[in-house]
Amino acid sequence: MSRQRIFSRNIVPFVASILLGLAAWHFGVIYFEVPGYVLPKPAAVWTALVDGLGRDPFSRASFLYHLGDTLKATVAGFVIGGLVGLVVAALMAESRLIEAAVLPYVVGLQSLPKVAIAPLLVIWFGYGSESKIAMSFVLTLFPVLINALSGFRSLPRDRLELMMSLRSSRWQIFRKVKLPGALPMIFAGLNIGIVYAMLGTIVSEFSGGQRGIGVIMMQMQAVSDTAGVFAALVVLGVTGYVLISSMRLLNRKLVFWMEEDEREDGI
Amino acid sequence: MTMNPAISAATAPLLTVRQLEKVYRTKAGDDVRALVDINIDLVDGEFVSVLGPSGCGKTTLLKILGGIVSHSAGELLFEGKPIAMAQRVMGVVFQSPVLLPWRTILDNVLLPIEVLGLDRGSYTAKARDLLDLVGLTGFDNKFPGELSGGMQQRASIVRALVHDPGILLMDEPFGALDALTRERMNVELQKIWLANQKTVFFITHSVSEAVFLSDRVLVMSARPGRIIEELRIDFPRPRSLDLMSSAEFGGITRHLRSCLGSHEGASE
User: Fold this and answer.
1) For residues A127 and A116, what is the distance between their CA atoms, to the nearest angstrom?
2) Count of domains for chain B
3) How many CA atoms lie within 13 A of B22 on its CB side?
4) What ipTM was reported for this prediction?
5) Closest partner residue to A164 among B67, B101, B111, by Cβ?
6) Fewest CB atoms within 10 A around its CB: which of B22, B59, B92, B95?
7) Can you give the pLDDT at residue B12?
8) Which of B68, B143, B145 is opposite residue A165, by nearest beta carbon?
9) Model-level pTM?
10) Confidence label for B3 from pLDDT (cuts 50, 70 and 90)
11) What CATH number did the domain enclosing A211 receive?
């Protein structure tokens, strides 16, 4: 079946369900006489959205202004967390000693809901961007490290023997065979990581701060501007979708040798 | 079974294996003797096959020669020198092609050149010639996923030859192929070998394959593996598949099968 047909097969029910959903929402709110601060009408959300996006991007009232801040912290924390996770996983895969030293911490901290340390990070880093980046760093680190480690460890025996028959050095084995072979698992970790990075940033913003989507959501909630909160959620949703799609695109480009259905799901 | 007299000493052997042994320690703490008292001399340009039942240690022997596994006792010399020092010595073809799926065929085939730090430019032409020789012309820029099993295995043979090794080690390279492809690959391999005159150490389960391809056939016993028979194969080359139906060929394979059969686990 051609891509066009698959697309139109999917898009029609999708659009139809959105329109139906909006209609149900609109009439439901009217019929059940739901107060605006509990569940605003779709039209009110739309107004808040357009208003927020339309403001001067450098003013405090603009969604784009705050989104910029949230994105900066998300991406910064993601990149740093991703790099650190990769390097530590690589070292752990090469050295039993390092693995033995680090793994207990990883396993131990894995089950801790890391968002719970948000207040701690605020104490250490203050209310600015640093604590947001720290939070998104921490949340990215674990999935990337665990998946990358699994990927590095899963080097097939026959590839290793091939390299040994050529008397390769450890570094050659890592660069030519271990790392490319681990890319599917690494991307599994990165795909999870980008979602968590944004989550971490938002949670950190909830705990306090001057700028960011999470911050204005708190402010709007405080004045019962529920339509505004919904509008912010829409912005977040779209942003998240764009981030995830970008990761998926990068994944497809770099791991080009695997079929769509062969790509691995992460841990 | 007595050993036939060694090859005439007119040519010094390229590879010498003397009283080689391999012992594994199991998890339970026992010692398993995989190989015992292995003595082989490979002369330059010889094609030698090793036949043996499953588990007899022939793959272990190949891995020891290839520098993948260490030996427990005995000597291993290439041109008189211990093997670890002669890096360019071996080309290895495994049971499965082990091509890297993210590299093109050409890049895969040039892998040994990269690892050994040689100049890629000077070997590219040779790699292409070898690909022509094995019938993979025009597949330079394709990826392994686009090739059949037989084609991938042919590419892996090219990879094993590209750095001009002294010896080609082949571990049941055609075992995973269907019978027809396998016969065709035997003819291909003979063609490649005649063009290169490499010294080949070839492991197989197939008696007829061994006799078709080799100058000499060694038979190993079941574990602990030792060499129990050595036979010269004097048919002139190039050998055709028709040779396999001749009475003489049949006699040789019968003899080899009986050597294998008198120890457990023979196949074919």
Assistant:
1) 16
2) 1
3) 24
4) 0.86
5) B67
6) B95
7) 73
8) B68
9) 0.84
10) very low
11) 1.10.3720.10
